[in-house]
Amino acid sequence: MKRMIPVALCLALCACGGTRVVDTTDKAEVAAMQHVMELEYRDWTNTAEKMTESMLASGALKSEKKPVIAIGNIVNDTTQRFDTDVLTKKIRTTLLKSGTAQIATNFSGEDATSNTVRNLRSNNEYDQNTIVKSGTLVAPNMSLSGKMLQRNLKLESGWFSSVDTRVEYYLQLTLTDLKTGLSLWEDEQPIIKEGKDAPTW
Questions:
Q1: Signed CA dihedral, 6, 11, 16, 18: sign only
Q2: Rg (CA), the chain
Q3: FRET partner for 171 with CA separation of 20 to 30 A, picked from 3, 83, 85, 98?
Q4: pLDDT 10s digit of each residue in the chain, 201 long?
Q5: What's the CA gap between 54 and 48, in Å, rounded?
C-alpha cells in the first residue's frame, strides 16, 4: 500500500503538467500568458495594430484613388525561424476590412491559381467561354516591404546579481509608390524584452 502512494502522487503531478490551449479571444487569459523572450502572439498582434494605425493615419493610401498593394520582401533578420506572413497577414486583413486598400495576391505569387487558369486558354478540354479573358489582372501601384531586426544586450546590475539580457526587436516597414519609386510611408516599431534564456545566434 505504501508503494502505491508515490506512484499515485507521480501520476497526479504528471497530469498537472499537461498542455493547455490558450483562448486568444479572452483578453485576460492572453494577458496572463507566460512571458517569453521570443516573439509570440501578443507581439505580432500589438505590432501589426500599431503599424496599420500609423499607415492609415499618415494619409499615404489616399495618394491613389484605388490603392492596390503588393506585399514585397519582408526580411527576417532574427535568431528565430518564422514566416513573416504571420505579421503581414494581420496588417493585410485590417487594411482590407477598413476598405482603404486592396491586396494584389497574384503579383506576389501567392495565388498560383490565377496563372494556372490563364494557362488553360489553349487547352481544348476546357470551355474557353469559362476561361478568364486576357487583360483583366490589376497591377499593384504600391508595395509594402520591410525587415525584422534583433539586437541582444547584456545587463549586469551588481557583483552578485545574475546576468540578464535585453532583446530588442525592430520591425521596419516601407510603403513605396511603384509609379515614382518614392516612399509614401515608413515606420519602425520596437519590441523590447528583458530576462533570461534570450534567443541567440
A1: positive
A2: 24
A3: 98
A4: 545 455 444 444 445 556 766 666 676 766 655 567 788 888 888 999 999 999 999 999 998 888 999 999 899 999 888 888 888 999 999 999 999 999 998 876 677 888 889 899 989 999 999 999 999 999 999 999 999 999 988 876 656 666 688 889 999 999 999 999 999 999 999 998 887 766 665
A5: 10
Contact 182, 141 (CB under 8 A): no
> Among 172, 156, 163, 166, which Cα is nearest to 193's?
166
Please name the residue that has the C-alpha cell 541567440: 200
Which residue shows C-alpha cell 476590412?
97
Sequential DSSP letters for the chain: -TTHHHHHHHHHHHHHT------TT-HHHHHTSPP-SS--HHHHHHHHHHHHHHHHHHTGGGGSSS-EEEEEEEEEESSS---THHHHHHHHHHHHHHTS-EE-TTTTTS-HHHHHHHGGGG-TTS-GGGSPPTT-PPPPSEEEEEEEEEEEEEE--SSSSPPEEEEEEEEEEEEEETTTTEEEEEEEEEEEEEESS----
Written as nine digits, the cell of 32 is 496572463
Phi, psi for 64 (deg, rounded to 5): -120, 145
CA distances, 126 to each of 12, 34, 120 (Å) = 63, 55, 7
For 152, list phi and psi in degrees, rounded to 5: -105, 135
Q: How far is CA 110 from CA 72, 84, 153, 168, in A?
A: 11, 14, 37, 31
